[in-house]
Amino acid sequence: MITSSALVLMMTIPGLALFYGGMVRKKNVLATLAQSFGATCIITVLWMIIGYSVAFTTNPNSGLNNFIGSFDYFLLGPMGLNQTSMLAPTIPESVYMFFQMTFAIITPALIAGALADRMKFSAFMWFMSLWLLFVYCPIAHRRDGRNGLRRRHGRALERRNRGARHLPRTRQARRLRHREHGAA
Q: What is the pTM of this model?
């Protein structure tokens, strides 16, 4: 699990950064590299503060539990080194949190390709932060949380679609590209 997490991080920081750096004009290569690194940093901090809690805990309010989890793990408070999660009972919860964090990092970072050369760095960081909290975390909660679709419908859902990782990213990129080319 740690090796997989390291590989996903390597896809993000040097991989995506260099790939998107090759797609832009020479004067914007450094800005594109900084966007990938900045997205990694801000999403890591937000994931440890609130993202993991919202995505992978159960909300006591059943109506809200359909969309977001609780804030029980704010700042990863109750997480211990040897504690395991109900979602991954064979590994420490800190490893599971790190594994899920790598996907929370790469998912919005993939949107950066649609934003290359089009957005100021500060606006990009705000967009990444808000996208993580208001799009990725609720979808991850609905799909992978304790009462999520994968728990109710098994692994067949995993093979059919990629849910939190690919669906919102592709739709958002399409909207941004469509808007860029002058269509209303």
A: 0.79
